[in-house]
C-alpha cells in the first residue's frame, strides 16, 4: 500500500488558501524563514521498527488492528508515514525481531519509499528461544563469561547485518543492572560491561559509531549498569572515538535537567544521538512533546546552539530517532504527532535570536534571556513546518489525510484485526 | 511615582501598526475573539505584598535596589504594575509585615491605583519579637494550647484587619509539621490543627472565605500537617461551607498531576484559589510559566471547563494570586512576566474547542483529544492578550515600557540602592 | 507436596542451642516479650495467588521452574510457605486467573494447609478472550455504559465466588486513567467510577468490605482515576461504611510520607488493608523490607499506635497482604523474605516505648523521640520472631530449610522446568 | 568548659554491668570483633564549624540558646562532643565565618581537645560586606572575569589559612548555576568554572587535595554548574590527580542510587570525601541515619568493600564529615546522634560476610546476597560501638551524659539565651 501523489495533492489543494495566508503572515513577521525551511527539509527522524504496533505494559496490551506482521510491512508503514510528512525517511531495526531474509530485496523496498537504514539495535534484554544462556542476570555485565560472550557475539552479528543494509551505527541499550542491594558488585559489573563493549567496539567497521544508551531504572529496580550520562560518558571515553552517548528523554531520574546534559555531552564531543519521547513518571514512552513541550524546545535550543558552535550539520551530525510506545493511540497517528512536535521544537529553536541571547547572558539580564526564549516558543511555528512539508511533497495535514484516506481501515482489511507486530 | 497616561500612549503608538496587523490576522483565524477579550479584561491577578522585593534562600539573598520599604510603597509598586498590564488590580497583604497605621489612607491610596484588597495572609511560621510563645514546633498543631491560642488569636486579628480593608478571605498557610520520624503524633497534630481552625472559622464574617493551603514539604522535612490536597480537603470539609482548599503550584511531590487535583476540587465545590508560580524541584517559586508552560495551560483547561460546568464566574469565582520569589530578576519585571504567562495560558484555554474535545473524549479518540489541546496551545495568543491590555489602557509591551521609563532606576533614586522590602 | 513435621523438627533441633541462647538474652533485655510473641503468633499475612510464579516487566520475563500451573498448586505452594513460617495462613485469589471448579474441594484443600481465603481481587485491567467489550480505555470509568456494566458484573461475580470460598472482602484495583492530557474529563471519569462502585457496593453481602486501592501511575502514564489516598478516601466516604482505602506501598509519588497517610486513614476509620512490597522508583514490587526497612518500621509504628488507640485487633482489624513481583528470585524464597521483614518490623514497632514516646512528643523533645524509635529499630528482633515461629511449629530458619529440603528442585521435578504460573 | 574524666567514669560505671553483658553476648555471636573495634577507634568524623548553632530555612530560624559566638567557642563545643563520643576529633572551618586571629592559639586550643583541622571550606555563595563584586550570578562560573578572579583569590586565601592551621584539603561547594532557562550558556559556565578551578588547583600545596562538591539544585532552581557526580568527575579529571569528587548525601535527584555512585568514584580513584546527613525531599540536612538508615549502611558497604579492594585506609583514605542543619534539635545532641548512626552503619558494614557475599554474587543467588546484607544490618551493633567508645575514654551513652551534666544549660549560662552562631 502506498499513498499516491495525487491523493496528497488533492488534500493540499483544499488547505492551500488558508496555509498561504498564514505563511505569508509568518514571512512578514520573521526574517530568514527560507534558511529555516531548508534546514527543516533536510531534518529526518528515524522510526524504530518496534513502534509500528501497539505497545503495552506488564499489565496488558490492547492490540489495535492492521499491525505489520513482518519487516516488509514495517517498512511499508514507515513509507506511508514518510509520504505524509516527508520527515521520517529512515528506519531503525531491532535484531532479532527484524532479521531480513533477502537483504537486497529489503534495501530495494526501503529505497522505493525513500527510506534509509538508521542505527541498528541489539537485544540482550530478552531470552530468545534458541539461546544457550539466559540474560536473567544481565548480558554484557554478567559474572559468567559465557553469557557475556553470547551477548558480544549477538552485537557483532547485529553490526554484520547493519553493514549488509547500509547502516552505520549500533545502539546498545542494556537492561543490565540489579533489583536488590548486594546482588551486584558495581565495579565488577562495570568492568565486565566495559570489557564486553571493547570487544564489540573492536568489531566496528570504519565510519561506524556505537551509541551507549543510559537508563536510570526499569527493568532493573535497584541499579542500572549504564544508569546515567556520567556512566555512559565513562564507557564512551574509555572505548574510544567511535563511541558516543545516546540520550533517551525518558531515561532519567525525576526533575533531571536533560538540556544541560545534552549541552555538556556536546562540549565533550560525545553526544551521539537521541531517542525522542515524552514522559511524566518514568520511561513512559509517550508521544514526543505531549507532556513537556517546553522541555523539548529547550533541548533543541541546546542542540542548535551547541552543534552550530561545533560546526556540526544538524541533519547528519547526530542520530535522531523516536522511541515511543503506542498503548492507546493508533501507532501511525502517534508517530505523526511525535514527528510534528519535534519539527516544531526544532523550528522554534531556530527562531531564537542567538545574538540577543548571548548579549543578555553576558549582562546577566535574566528576564531578557527568558523573553528571548519565550518569544521563540510562543511563536506559532506550524505554518513554517507545513511549508517545508508541502515543498517536499508531503501533506498539509498528515494526520487528517491519514484519516481521510482510511489508511488504518485498509491496513486492517489487508492484515486483519487481531494482529501483533513482531517483537511486541 | 505613577506612570502617566501619555507615557503609555506614546509607547503604544509606536507599537500600533505591528499589533494591528497581528490582531487582524488573529481575528480572521479565530472566531469569537471578542468574548475572549471581554473575559481577559475582567481577569485580575492579585500580587502579594512580599513579592515586591528580592527574595532569597537559606544560603543568601542578593538584594536589588529600590525595594519598597513600607506598605505604601508596596501599593505604589503594584500600582505601577497594574498601570502597565491592567491585570494586577489587587494586593494580598501579609500580617504582621503589612499592618496599616491608617486604614482609610491605605484604602484610599490603593483605590487611587485601582487596586482591591485580596485575601489576607497570616504568619505563624516565624516568631515575632514580642511574641509570648514560639512556633518552633508548630502553631495551630502545637501540643501546647497556649501556643495554639496565640496562633488562633493572630489569625482572628488578621481577619479583623482584612475587614477594615475590605478584604473577604483569609489564607492560612501553615509550616506546621515535623522534621523527624516520631516527633509528632500525626492524628494528634491533625486534631489540634482542626480545632484551631474551627476557632478561626467561627470568627469569619459572613461572606468571608478561609483558604487552607497545603504543602508537601519545607520548612519541615519529614511531615507536613496540611501536606496535600487530601488533607486540605479533609479540613475544609470538616470546617464547613466557608472553607476551601488553596492550590500553590509549587507545593506538590515530584510528578504530581496538579490539573487533576484542580478538577476534583472543583467537583467537590472546595477549590478556593490559586498561588501561581513555577518550579522544577520543589517550592522553587519561579516566574509563572517559566518552566512548565504546558502544565499551566492544562490547569487553565481544567479551570475553564470546570468553572463553566459549575456556572462560576472566571474572574470572581476563585482567588487568583501570584506567590513567587524573585531571587535573580527585578521583582516587577518578574511579576510582569508571570502575569503575562498566566494571561496567555488562560487565553489558550479559552481557545480550546470544547465541543470537539467532549466529542473526542466520548469516542476515546485520544489522538484527536491531543490535537485539540495542542491546537489551542500552539496558537500564538500574545496579540489577543495585548489587545485586551490596550483596550483597558495598559501598555503594548509592559516590560519594555518599564525599562524605557527607567522605573527601577527612579525607584532606586528615591528609595536607595541598599534596600530590603519589609518582611524579607 | 507437603513439609513433614519431623523435617521441621530435625531442622529446628540443630538450631536450638543458638536460638535458646539468643532468646534468653533478649528475654533479659526486654520486658513483656510474651505479650509480643502472642501477637506475632496471631499475625497472618495473606499471599496473593499471582505471587507464586516469576514476574516480569514489559521488557521480558525470565521464568524459573516448578511454577504452579493451577489453583491447587498455588494453594500447595502457600501451604509450603505457611508450614515453614506459620505466618502466611491465607491466600488472596485473583479472578479470572483462579476460578475454582469445585469450591468444596478447594476449600478443603486450603483448610488442609491451615489456609483461609483472604480478600478477592477482580481484574478489569486486561481483556479476557471471551469478553464483549475492551478495557483499553478503562473499565469502571469508561464513557460507555456497556463497558462499565461488564466491569461491574465481573466484580459482582467475584464477590459471588468469594462468598462460596468464605472470603469477606473485595479488593478493587483499577488501572483506569489516561495516558495523555485531554484524553479524559477527570470529573466525568470520577463520577462514572463512583456510580460503578456504587453498584458493586450494593452487591456486597453483610459483613463484607470493599477495598478501593489507589495508585499514582502505571499502566496509565498521565492520570489515574483512583490516583492517591485523597481520591480513594473520597470514593470510600461516598460509598459508605463498608468501603475502605487499601494502601499498596509502591503506589505513591516519589518521597511520599506513607506512614502519615496510614495514620490519617486510621483516624478517619477508613484504612482497610495493605499490600506490602518495597520499591525505589515506582511500583517496583520488590521484596518487602529490601529497600527501605526503616519506612516499613515507621508504618508499623503508626499501625500499632493507631489501631491500639482505636481498639482494633492487630491481626483481624485490617487486611494484610503481600503484593510483589519476583523477577529475579525464587518466588517462595522471596515471599519468605517478605514475611520475615514484615514480622520484624511489626515486632520492632511493638517494642517501642509508647509512654516515653508520648511524653517526649508532649515536650517537643525531638532528639528523644528519635532515640526512642531508633532504640526499637536497632534492636535485633530476629530471635523474637523466631521464637514465635518455633512455638507454632514453624522452622527456625525457613529459607534455609526450604533449600535443605530441595523444595524448588522437587517442584521442578513434578511440574517441569518451563512453567508459567497462570495469570503471569 | 570541659567534661572531666571523672564525670565520664562515673556515668560509665553505672552503665557497666548492662554493657558488659551485652558485649559478652555479641563477642560470642560474632567472630573478629577486636579487629572491628580497632577500626572503629581510628575512625573520626569531622564536625563543620557551622553545625554548632541552630540552622534555619528561608522561612525562619528558631534559635536555641548557648550557641558559640566565635571560633574558640565552636572548638570548645566540638571538644565537648569529642570528649563524649571520641569519634569527632576534627573540625572543618568555613571562611570567612571562622577566620582565626591568632593561628597558634587556635591550634593549641584545638589540640587541647584532641582536635585536628579537617578540610577548609570556602564561601562564594554569599556576598560579604566589603566585597568588590557580587556573587548574585555565580562566582567561578561568572561571565565577568573580575568576579571569577575575586572568587579564585578567596579560595586561594582559604588554602593559605588552611596551611597555617595544618589542614590539607579544600572543599569547594559552588552555588553557581541558573534559575531560569536561557540564563546561562551551560558550556560557557562549565568552561569558566573549569578555568577558575585550574587557578585554584595551581595554588594547592603538595599533599593537598581539592574536593569538588556537586549538588543537583538549591539555591539555584534550574541548573547547577557542578550538578551531579558526572559533572564533578569531569572537573576532577580535567584538573588532575589532586582533585576529587565530594559526595553530600542530600545533593541528589529523587531516588538516586548513591551507593553505586560511591562505588564508581572509588573505581575511578576519584572519591575524595563525604558530607553525611539525611533527607527525604532535597538537601534537608537532617541527622545522619534518621530517615534512611539502610541507605547509609549500603553506602558503607560500598566504602568498606571498595576501599579494601584499593588498599585504602578506612580512617584516612577519605575525608569524613558531617554537614547537617539543626533546626529543631539541640545541635550537639543532633551531632551525637549523627555520629552514632554513622558508626553503627560502618560497624554493620564491617560485619558483612564478604567472602559469602562474593560467592553468592558469582552464583547470582540474589536471595542469599540479600540475606547476607540483612544479616549484618539486623545485627544490633550498639554494644560494639559502645565498647570502642569506652576503650578510648568516651561515654557509655553520650546523649544521656550530655543531659545529665546539663551541658546546654551551662552553655546558656555562660553564653546567653539569645545567641546566633557566627555564620548562621
From TrEMBL, chains A, B, C, D:
InterPro entries according to UniProt: L-rhamnose_isomerase (IPR050337), Xyl_isomerase-like_sf (IPR036237)
Origin superkingdom: Bacteria
Keywords assigned by UniProt, alphabetized: Isomerase, Manganese, Metal-binding
GO molecular function: isomerase activity; metal ion binding
Stated name of the protein: L-rhamnose isomerase/sugar isomerase
Organism: Pedobacter metabolipauper
Amino acid at each position: 500500500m502506498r499513498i499516491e501523489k495525487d491523493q496528497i495533492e488533492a488534500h493540499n489543494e483544499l488547505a492551500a488558501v488558508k496555509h498561504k495566508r498564514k505563511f505569508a503572515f509568518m514571512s512578514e513577521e520573521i526574517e530568514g524563514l527560507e534558511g529555516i525551511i531548508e534546514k527543516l527539509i533536510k531534518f529526518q527522524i528515524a522510526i524504530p521498527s518496534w513502534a509500528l504496533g501497539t505497545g503495552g505494559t506488564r499489565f496488558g496490551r490492547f492490540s489495535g488492528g492492521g499491525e505489520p506482521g513482518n519487516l516488509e510491512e514495517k517498512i511499508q508503514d514507515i513509507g506511508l508515514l514518510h509520504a505524509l510528512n516527508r520527515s521520517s525517511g529512515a528506519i531503525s531495526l531491532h535484531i532479532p525481531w527484524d532479521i531480513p531474509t533477502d537483504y537486497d530485496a529489503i534495501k530495494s523496498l526501503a529505497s522505493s519509499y525513500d527510506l534509509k537504514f538508521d542505527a541498528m539495535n541489539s537485544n540482550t534484554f530478552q531470552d530468545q528461544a534458541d539461546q544457550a544462556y539466559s540474560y536473567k542476570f544481565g548480558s554484557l555485565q554478567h559474572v559468567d563469561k559465557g553469557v557475556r560472550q553470547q551477548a558480544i557475539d549477538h552485537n557483532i552479528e547485529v553490526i554484520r547485518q547493519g553493514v549488509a543494509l547500509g547502516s552505520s551505527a549500533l545502539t546498545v541499550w542494556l537492561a543490565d543492572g540489579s533489583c536488590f542491594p548486594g546482588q551486584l558488585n558495581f565495579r565488577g559489573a562495570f568492568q565486565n560491561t566495559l570489557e564486553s563493549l571493547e570487544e564489540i567496539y573492536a568489531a566496528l567497521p570504519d565510519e561506524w559509531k556505537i551509541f551507549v544508551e543510559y537508563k536510570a531504572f526499569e527493568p532493573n529496580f535497584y541499579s542500572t549498569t549504564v544508569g546515567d550520562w556520567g556512566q555512559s560518558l565513562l564507557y564512551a571515553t574509555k572505548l574510544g572515538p567511535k563511541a558516543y552517548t545516546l540520550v533517551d528523554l525518558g531515561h532519567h531520574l525525576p526533575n533531571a535537567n536533560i538540556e544541560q546534559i545534552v549541552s555538556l555531552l556536546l562540549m565533550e564531543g560525545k553526544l551521539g544521538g537521541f531517542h525522542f519521547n515524552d514522559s511524566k513518571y518514568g520511561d513512559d514512552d509517550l508521544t514526543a512533546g505531549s507532556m513537556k513541550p517546553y522541555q523539548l524546545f529547550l533541548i533543541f535550543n541546546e542542540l542548535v546552539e551547541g552543534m552550530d558552535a561545533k560546526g556540526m550539520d544538524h541533519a547528519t551530525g547526530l542520530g535522531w530517532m523516536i522511541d515511543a510506545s503506542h498503548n492507546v493511540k493508533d501507532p501511525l497517528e502517534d508517530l505523526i504527532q511525535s514527528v510534528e512536535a519535534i519539527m516544531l521544537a526544532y523550528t522554534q529553536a531556530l527562531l531564537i535570536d542567538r545574538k540577543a541571547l548571548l548579549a543578555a547572558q553576558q549582562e546577566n539580564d535574566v528576564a531578557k534571556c527568558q523573553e528571548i526564549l519565550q518569544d521563540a516558543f510562543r511563536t506559532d511555528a506550524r505554518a513554517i513546518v507545513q511549508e517545508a512539508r508541502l515543498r517536499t511533497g508531503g501533506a498539509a495535514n498528515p494526520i487528517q489525510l491519514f484519516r481521510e484516506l482510511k489508511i488504518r481501515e485498509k491496513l486492517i482489511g489487508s492484515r486483519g484485526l487481531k494482529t501483533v507486530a513482531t517483537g511486541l
